[in-house]
Amino acid sequence: MLYSWLTPSHFVMLGLQIVFAIAHSGGAALRPWAEKHIGARLYRIGFALVSLPLAVILIIYFFNHRYDGLQLWQVQAVPGIREVVWVLSAISFLFLYPATFNLLEIAAIQKPQVYLFETGIIRITRHPQMVGQIIWCLAHTLWLGTTFTVVTSLGLILHHLFGVWHGDRRLTARYGEAFQLVKQRTSIIPFQAIIDGRQSIKWPEFLRPAYIGVGIFIGLLSWAHPLLLVATSRIQW
């Protein structure tokens, strides 16, 4: 058949992403109401108990089906491609995770709060998680070259682009004029505010535990990546 390469896993992945997007973005939208009625710590625990298992399912399903569908290109044997993919992946994590600076709040040990950050990587882009996800998707799509990876990447990118609008909307509702001033001094597109002269990089701001922790995490992930592939392959979905 003409579309025999369009395996059911393509649609399963899209369905899983839609469920995750509804749970994650919906949970974020409910935050003001939930914190008022059940408290910030209990909300954070509930949000994590919903989001984290769904994220783990997505990761495992992606690992197990990443070569499904049509092989659009094959560049893994091209000299230098492996190094390019690893560098892009490392850069993506630098954008993805420093947005969550306070681990004690993430774990609800301290009271979780919402902040208006305008330092560090936020000077480069107001939505580092979106930028990091796009870089990660580009790197892995380049490396794998399958229609399943393309579908996965498109779903992730669309979710994060929605998150840009959704996040700005929630911060506007919460902070009003204060957030409008932050928007004027920052940009969604990386480095645009710096090029425009609205912002400047202050390198000492990057010397903080969150960035050091991400660097360590990248090193550990590089070492453990083959082990993760083996471990997830034992879970058949």
Could you provide a short overview of the structure?
This protein is mostly helical and 237 residues long. The chain has helices at residues 8-29, 31-38, 40-65, 81-96, 103-106, 128-144, 147-175, 177-185, 192-196, 209-233.
What do the pLDDT scores average to?
A: 87
Helix content: 55-70%
- Measure the end-to-end span: 25 Å
Quaternary assembly: single chain
Question: So how many helices?
Answer: 10
Instruction: Work out the strand percent.
Output: under 5%
Uncertain regions spanning at least 5 consecutive residues: 103-110
Count all strands and give the number: 0
Radius of gyration: 19 Å
Task: Walk me through this protein's architecture.
This protein is mainly alpha-helical and 237 residues long. It is built from ten helices and no strands. The protein has helices at residues 8-29, 31-38, 40-65, 81-96, 103-106, 128-144, 147-175, 177-185, 192-196, 209-233. Helix 4 (81-96) packs across helix 10 (209-233). It is globular. The two termini are 25 Å apart.
Question: What does the secondary structure layout of this molecule look like, with pairings?
Answer:
Elements: H1 8-29, H2 31-38, H3 40-65, H4 81-96, H5 103-106, H6 128-144, H7 147-175, H8 177-185, H9 192-196, H10 209-233
Helix pairs in contact: 1-3, 1-7, 2-3, 4-6, 4-10, 6-7, 7-8
